[in-house]
Amino acid sequence: MISQRSAQLLSAGLGLCLALACRDAPTAPAPPAAQPRPSADIAIDTVDEFPPEPRILNPYTQIGYVDQGGRHLAEYRVGMEYIGNKASMSTEYVITGDGVSMRDKIYNEQDSYYDFHLWKHFDRVYYVEVPRSCGLELGGGTQHQAWWFLYVRIMPDWKSIRAAATSYGTPYHLEPCEEEHQPTTTTSGGGNGGGYITITTCWYWATIVKGLIVAIEFDYCESSTIPIDEAMLNNMT
Length: 237
Known about the structure:
Layout: H1 4-24, E1 55-68, E2 71-83, E3 86-97, E4 100-111, E5 120-129, E6 136-147, E7 149-150, E8 158-159, E9 163-168, E10 172-173, E11 184-187, E12 195-209, E13 212-228, H2 230-236
Antiparallel strand pairs: 1-2, 2-5, 3-4, 3-6, 6-9, 6-10, 7-8, 11-12, 12-13
């Protein structure tokens, strides 16, 4: 016959065994933690080698002129080849002439792919409207840059030093404007038949090669007004 004390000990032992059994029993696996997904607008790449130094080859700026349906356009063609995955070109144009002074910058940037040893091309054409088709000088130059910008999974983004180069275009000269100066006469009052005449004289620079004129460049003009009598006016007409 089990005494009351023995019954209490047996009950405590069963309780301890149940607690241990619950602790050691296998549990259901926890659901996997959600993995962060890369944003659609962020490029993530891994690289097996360190990129070479960025380089620039054949930078150029070419300047010309285009008449497009009555619009007078200065044309700037710029470009380069480069090693890197980012490149930029900042083109400054300068347009000057009699009463004309225009200066501004045009900036463009290009993203490229992660090929460490392939030369990439970057070419652009810009048009700048000018007020007339004569008497202007079109000038300008371009600052070219190329570099690496790498997106790394764990480490911070990495930027390389920048390769830089400058190209200047040969200035483009539009033909001198033709100034039409015709002698004019005005008749003075008083009925004496006299008047005045304005005479305009212009000077030009001529380039002569082997006895032939190959270029003429306008220099300046001077005007003078002189009185004349009726007899001189009749002789002129």
